[in-house]
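Quick illustration for those who missed Monday's session on complexes.
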Amino acid sequence: MADIAERYDIPKQHFWLHGPRSRRPVEYDADAGMWNVYGYPELQEILGDPATFSSDTMRLVPKDLIPGGDEFSMAGFITQIDPPEHGKLRKLVSHAFTRKVVADLEPRIAALTHELLDAAHDRGKLELVTDLAYPLPVIVIAELLGVPGGDRALFKQWADALFQRDTKISLAKPAEQQNVDLQATLKPWKEMSAYLAGHAAERRRQPRADLLTKLVEAEVDGERLPDDQVVNFAIILLLAGHITTTMLLGNTVLCLDAFPEQQDKVRADRASIPAVIEESLRLFTPFAALGRATTRDVELGGVTIPADHMVMCWLGAANRDPRQFPDPDVFDPGRDPNPHLAFGRGIHFCLGAPLARLEGRVALDILLDRVNPLRTDPDDPVKFMPTPTMTGVRRLPLT
Ligand code: HEM
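Prediction with protoporphyrin IX containing FE bound:
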């Protein structure tokens, strides 16, 4: 893997954090005041036990480290909610993500992929992220939600402001000793909330056949979702719906560049595309880490994690745990089964996984038809996301 890191100039932090072989499966980071978990079986244990490893991590973060402090509402933020409330909210949105709703999107995804590649073709150069991997999932999720795909420059601005910075928060130090620019996060967050609140209010007045209308009309225990919950849920869908899928598409093409023999194989056997996508998710896990908060003292991997501690669950490391995946640094779509944790596991398993997999499959199939070979441009370097929690290319020029 070191040769790949060097070849594509991948920032070191992605690798030293994700290489579990040199580390213990569970370690305390005194500087950050958090526990890191790198091992596959240990993560299985965590993700299967939401009573001990709660998703409500914000309660451990001091108010003066939260952008907006008290005015910041986490209501409706499904990834932060524990049972039993989590199950109610999840049921509500699962209706919008049925297999049929997702499968029906296939022709639209294919048409969009062709449109975007045509535009790049006319310009004579293909930068995979800007030309396809970013706009495709963002247009799809925007159309599903019912907000204009044409506003995607705005979404990108917000997403970049939230995720392109490598901000490290420590729970072991007082806020004033930390270099955290809360305003930089608060501003895009407020703008995004106002934008989605405007669209939600419009749907209450005038329902349409879109997901935002479903959310404003949805009821939990006979009550409609309050505005802040609708807005926060829509934010999660808008953000989760594209950033990770952008990384998936870019990373998959990078893997096929790094392992050209696998590119030949998948060209010859398109039925293996889903396996290529799964292996890309394992090797370059887009959403590399999740947070959990312990509710009691718990023994894990031979150590005791005390109650009320933050636990960083490094999915990207567990997906390379040699106890689970032999030759973990090799891109081998032939792994069967491939029980990677890229979409999480348990009650919070990614709601959008079928959509992400469909977008990956359709886009890769068309790319293989239209671009032969898929090869990075040796004169124009690949760029990687700076944050260790996000494993993904953000610039991928092709020849
Ligand atoms: C949850 C990854 C695409 C919506 C998650 C989780 C992971 C994940 C790891 C678990 C979070 C946790 O346990 O705390 C990914 C990856 C994607 C992807 C790697 C693409 C390659 C999508 C898409 C959507 C989406 C396309 C929506 C359209 C969600 C939602 C949750 C979630 C709503 C929360 C589920 C819950 O808390 O019950 N995702 N995701 N994701 N994802 Fe995705």
